[in-house]
Amino acid sequence: MTQSPGSIEEISLYSDTMIEYLKTYREDMPQWLKDYKSGDFVPFSDFMAGRVGYYPGSWTDGTLIKVGNMSQSVHCFIQVDYWMERDYLNRHLATPRCVYGYHEIGRVEWALEDILPHGDHPLPEVAKKCPKEWYDRENPYYFLVVFERDRDRDDSWGAERFAVAFFMTDAIAMYNSLFVHEYRKAPWILLLQDHGLGGNYDRFGRGGILDKIIIRSGLKPEFVVLGHSTALWEGYERVSGAMEVRGGMHESWRSLHRLVPFGEKY
Q1: pTM as predicted
Q2: pLDDT the model gives residue 6
Q3: SS3 category, 30
Q4: Is 262 within 8 Å of 237 (Cβ atoms)?
Q5: Comparing 9-13, 98-102, 177-181, 237-241, which segment has the lowest mean pLDDT?
Q6: Cα distance between residue 149 and residue 73, in whole Å
Q7: Which residue from 18, 37, 81, 19 is spatially nearest to 55, judged by alpha carbons?
Q8: What pLDDT is attached to residue 124?
Q9: Closest Cα partner for 242 from 73, 21, 71, 23?
Q10: Closest CA to 110 of 166, 67, 154
């Protein structure tokens, strides 16, 4: 999901970005993704078995996907936004160059029971702050799109395949239910960006409900791609030498931060 000037094409021109740094963490493509054929059903547990990138409040911003895919450090991404109506998202995905250099080869529809077979775990903090009509959206969706690299692109462009799950639900509540309770693992990388204009009932950054969930659980992403004007959680340090990238509706700069191992100073 590309947006100028932070498109995959432009980012690929840089040689000292966070993408180059993350290439040192390159992972093999998950086996289920290698074997995928259009029409196959993919259990959500297979999708979650490896590294996952998570973007709360993503809207149409593809920055996390670009960074993870071009470095081939992540092949599976979750984009969550309770404002993104399905018709709008489908129109966006159908636009030329939405995912530049890639084409869609299949989709998998999931029900909430596929995502959270043991049920969700409501949070009193969310119930207290989030308007019910925001949290309990009509016609929510949970579906996966598998993308394959165009034949005229090579490995330097990104992975041969990657997969993006799109959820229309509350990103804070989903983090708690999915990562803390259902899988007991943190996303490997997360894009942390607070948004204004009244679209969020609470901040994603330091001091917000999501921060408190992460502190309580101890489940912290290995890397955070941080948007400007967003307060980073404690326990992270900026990766020196990793040039910022731009993206999102307002083309804001994002920097890379890593989790400081226990016992190290930050």
Answers
A1: 0.90
A2: 40
A3: coil
A4: no
A5: 9-13
A6: 16
A7: 81
A8: 80
A9: 21
A10: 166
What's the full length of the chain, in residues? 266
Report the largest interatomic distance among the alpha carbons of the chain, rounded to a whole angstrom. 51
Tell me the average pLDDT across 149-173.
Answer: 95
Say if CB 238 and CB 257 are below 8 A apart.
yes
Bond prior to 5 in cis (omega within 30° of 0):
yes
Mean pLDDT of 109-118: 97
Q: Which residues of 53-77 are buried (b: 16+ CB within 10 A; e: fewer)?
A: bbbbbbbbbbbbbbbbbbbbbbbbb
Residue 14's pLDDT is 41
Tokens of 49: 């078995």
Amino acid code (one letter) for 130: C
SS3 state at 126: helix
In the chain, the amino acid numbered 265 is K
The position carrying tokens 């340090």 is 237
- Nearest of 158, 193, 174, 239 to residue 61 by alpha carbon: 193
Q: Give the span between the Cα atoms of 152 and 192, in whole angstroms.
A: 33
Tokens, residue 188: 């490997």
pLDDT digits (tens, 9 = 90+) for 23-76: 999 999 999 999 999 999 999 999 999 999 999 999 899 999 999 999 999 999
Q: What is the mean pLDDT of the chain?
A: 88
| Token pair listed for 193 | 């960006």
Helix or strand run (H / E) with residue 172? helix 171-174
Which residue shows structure tokens 């969700």?
A: 120
β-bridge partners, 231:
none
CB 108 within 8 A of CB 41: yes
